[in-house]
Specification:
- Helices cover 28% and strands 27% of the residues.
- Strand 9, helix 9 and strand 10 form a beta-alpha-beta unit.
- The chain has an eight-stranded parallel β-barrel with strand order 2-3-4-5-6-8-9-10, surrounded by five helices. It has a six-stranded antiparallel barrel with strand order 11-14-17-16-15-18. A two-stranded antiparallel sheet has the order 12-13.
- It is α/β, with parallel strands linked by helices.
- Bound molecules: pyridoxal-5'-phosphate.
- The site of pyridoxal-5'-phosphate has 12 residues, from loops.
């Protein structure tokens, strides 16, 4: 797609997504479930899922039923694992569409079973075990009895089981992950002993997939690693992964502002001399948050954002870039020449994590796909 008329857009390299899935498969020798929830962390759910499946991902993971159905509507036939809540009213549709869902509550599971049975399709469930995140899941100590109970429900097929880690990305302090893994293994021994170990056992997000081989089991569930971003500053991806995302916008004005003038709403920045001030088409309405400090890349150099971020624009100091021209491409996240702004850098300067940065890039930012 031609980007020359775009003001603010994401360039998403589907070749990088495919490369990363291949890396994950080679590294783990395990079936990969590409987690594409929340619009593939802002990258575009269907496009990323298609690329991942093409590169050999055996499953797709999503958080919500509308996401799962969106994948089916797009013609994706790979098994789908719903990671979040299934309303009982959608149990028959989930069964008919071959969407595997979590079971973590007896009453809910019984409702799923009844609805599925009435529809004539079995619903595949994955017993969700809470080993220490304290989110969804039955406590590990109650897991075996729970699986036994699920087997009494005639509308369900107990296809799998999964758990999820609280601190797999804290590589320097592995105690929590090791304890969770121990609890999960105890549960698995228990179900194995009564002949009810499910076929598809999974536990690993990206960080655990890479750093805890014992957590891989039958299926790994990476999300951020598929996109080529690090789970945390500590849990970095091995070499060979490639970031798919570059966030770009355009320089849309350049002028000299005299000394002593205020820049942007609130006048929190004042010029101290004649200053070259550019305007770029990026604002908090795009997900470029109002936090400071902010930088952007222009002509391969880092420039400073000055003054408050507006909804659709912000200003940059261009004294070091006399050649900058209206229409120049600006990079907000990613590489330009030798310069780079990482999602981790944005996360830490905005008081959050890279997951939050990329997932909150707004829908109005145009998505452009390359490299597939
Ligand atoms: C989001 C999520 C994942 C993927 O996490 P990453 O850190 O992006 O790899 C895996 N499993 C569950 C249950 C999730 O909610």
């Amino acid at each position: 797609m031609e980007t020359e008329n775009f003001a603010n857009w994401l360039e998403i390299d589907l070749g990088a997504v495919q490369n990363n899935v291949r890396q994950l498969k080679a590294l783990t020798g395990t079936t990969v479930c590409a987690v594409v929830k929340a619009n593939a962390y802002g990258h575009g759910m269907v496009e990323v899922a298609r690329a991942a499946v093409k590169a050999g991902a055996g499953w797709c993971g999503v958080a919500r039923m509308d996401e799962a159905l969106g994948l089916r509507k797009a013609g994706i036939t790979a098994p789908i694992l719903l990671l979040g809540y299934l309303a009982p009213g959608l149990a028959a549709e989930a069964a008919a569409e071959n969407i595997s869902v979590p079971a973590y509550d007896r009453e809910l599971a019984a409702e799923y079973s009844a609805k599925a049975l009435a529809s004539g399709h079995k619903l595949k469930v994955h017993a969700k075990i809470d080993t220490g995140l304290s989110r969804l899941g039955v406590l590990a100590a109650e897991g075996v009895e729970f699986v036994r109970y699920l087997h009494t429900l005639p509308g369900l097929e107990v296809e799998g089981s999964f758990t999820h880690y609280a601190r797999a990305d804290a590589i320097g302090s592995p105690e929590t992950t090791l304890l969770q893994l121990k609890r999960y293994n105890q549960f698995l021994e228990g179900v194995t002993a009564i002949g009810l170990r499910p076929r598809v056992v999974s536990s690993a997000n990206s960080a655990a997939t890479i750093y805890y081989p014992d957590a891989r089991f039958d299926l790994v569930r990476p999300g951020i690693a598929v996109l080529g971003m690090n789970p945390s500053d500590e849990a970095v991806l091995p070499s060979g992964f490639r970031q798919a995302l570059t966030w770009k916008c355009r320089l849309i004005s350049v002028k000299t502002v005299p000394a002593g003038e205020g820049i942007s709403y609130g006048h929190r920045y004042k010029t101290t001399k004649n200053e070259r001030i550019g305007v770029i088409a990026a604002g908090y309405g795009d997900g470029f948050r109002r936090a400071v400090p902010h930088f952007a890349l222009l002509r391969g150099k880092r420039v400073k954002v000055v003054g408050g971020i507006c909804m659709d624009q912000c200003m940059v100091q261009l004294d070091e870039l006399p050649d900058a021209r209206i229409g120049d491409e600006v990079v907000l996240l990613g590489k330009q020449g030798e310069a780079e702004i990482t999602s981790e850098e944005l996360g830490s300067s905005w008081g959050t994590v890279n997951y939050d940065v990329i997932t909150s890039i707004e829908a109005r930012v145009q998505r452009v796909y390359i490299g597939s």
